[in-house]
Amino acid sequence: MTDYLDGNAAAGALSEVFAVDVTAAIARCDGCGQTGVFADTRLYLNAPGMVARCPGCDHVLLRVVTTPTETYVDLRGLTYLRLPTS
Q1: What pTM was computed for the model?
Q2: Is pLDDT above 90 for 27?
Q3: Rounded distance, CA 50 to CA 53, Å?
Protein backbone atom coordinates (compact mmCIF):
# COMPACT_ATOMS: atom_id res chain seq x y z
CA MET A 1 0.00 0.00 0.00
CA THR A 2 1.28 3.49 -0.86
CA ASP A 3 1.17 6.48 1.42
CA TYR A 4 0.75 9.07 -1.32
CA LEU A 5 -1.91 10.29 -3.75
CA ASP A 6 -1.45 11.55 -7.28
CA GLY A 7 -1.04 15.26 -8.01
CA ASN A 8 -4.75 15.65 -8.75
CA ALA A 9 -5.34 15.70 -5.00
CA ALA A 10 -3.60 19.10 -4.87
CA ALA A 11 -6.29 20.76 -7.01
CA GLY A 12 -8.31 22.19 -4.12
CA ALA A 13 -5.42 23.62 -2.13
CA LEU A 14 -3.63 25.01 -5.18
CA SER A 15 -6.80 26.59 -6.54
CA GLU A 16 -6.69 28.88 -3.52
CA VAL A 17 -3.25 30.13 -4.64
CA PHE A 18 -3.37 29.93 -8.45
CA ALA A 19 -6.15 31.15 -10.75
CA VAL A 20 -5.65 28.17 -13.12
CA ASP A 21 -5.80 24.39 -12.76
CA VAL A 22 -2.21 23.56 -11.84
CA THR A 23 -2.82 19.81 -12.11
CA ALA A 24 -2.93 20.18 -15.92
CA ALA A 25 0.30 22.21 -16.01
CA ILE A 26 3.53 20.71 -17.32
CA ALA A 27 6.18 20.42 -14.62
CA ARG A 28 9.92 19.71 -15.00
CA CYS A 29 11.81 18.13 -12.11
CA ASP A 30 14.96 20.00 -11.12
CA GLY A 31 16.45 16.73 -9.85
CA CYS A 32 16.22 14.34 -12.82
CA GLY A 33 14.76 16.53 -15.58
CA GLN A 34 11.62 14.42 -16.02
CA THR A 35 8.78 16.39 -17.59
CA GLY A 36 5.09 15.59 -17.26
CA VAL A 37 1.73 16.85 -16.11
CA PHE A 38 1.59 17.89 -12.46
CA ALA A 39 -1.27 15.43 -11.94
CA ASP A 40 1.28 12.60 -12.30
CA THR A 41 3.31 13.70 -9.27
CA ARG A 42 3.18 11.82 -5.98
CA LEU A 43 1.41 13.90 -3.38
CA TYR A 44 2.03 13.36 0.33
CA LEU A 45 -0.40 14.79 2.86
CA ASN A 46 1.00 13.21 6.05
CA ALA A 47 3.03 16.31 6.92
CA PRO A 48 2.38 19.79 8.24
CA GLY A 49 1.47 20.68 4.67
CA MET A 50 1.36 19.14 1.22
CA VAL A 51 4.47 17.76 -0.51
CA ALA A 52 4.61 16.81 -4.22
CA ARG A 53 7.42 14.48 -5.32
CA CYS A 54 8.71 13.47 -8.75
CA PRO A 55 7.41 10.05 -9.81
CA GLY A 56 10.76 9.38 -11.49
CA CYS A 57 13.35 10.20 -8.81
CA ASP A 58 11.28 11.08 -5.70
CA HIS A 59 12.79 14.61 -5.61
CA VAL A 60 10.62 17.16 -3.74
CA LEU A 61 8.97 19.38 -6.37
CA LEU A 62 6.55 21.52 -4.40
CA ARG A 63 5.59 22.23 -0.80
CA VAL A 64 2.47 24.07 0.35
CA VAL A 65 1.85 24.94 4.00
CA THR A 66 -1.15 26.95 5.15
CA THR A 67 -1.25 28.73 8.49
CA PRO A 68 -4.19 30.66 9.90
CA THR A 69 -2.85 33.86 8.31
CA GLU A 70 -0.67 32.84 5.31
CA THR A 71 0.03 30.20 2.68
CA TYR A 72 3.62 29.29 1.88
CA VAL A 73 4.38 27.84 -1.57
CA ASP A 74 7.87 26.43 -2.22
CA LEU A 75 8.57 25.54 -5.87
CA ARG A 76 12.35 25.05 -5.56
CA GLY A 77 12.18 21.48 -6.85
CA LEU A 78 10.76 22.54 -10.21
CA THR A 79 12.80 23.85 -13.10
CA TYR A 80 9.51 25.23 -14.40
CA LEU A 81 5.74 24.89 -14.17
CA ARG A 82 4.26 25.56 -17.62
CA LEU A 83 0.67 26.78 -17.44
CA PRO A 84 -1.60 26.89 -20.48
CA THR A 85 -3.01 30.23 -21.57
CA SER A 86 -6.66 30.46 -22.47
Answers
A1: 0.79
A2: yes
A3: 10
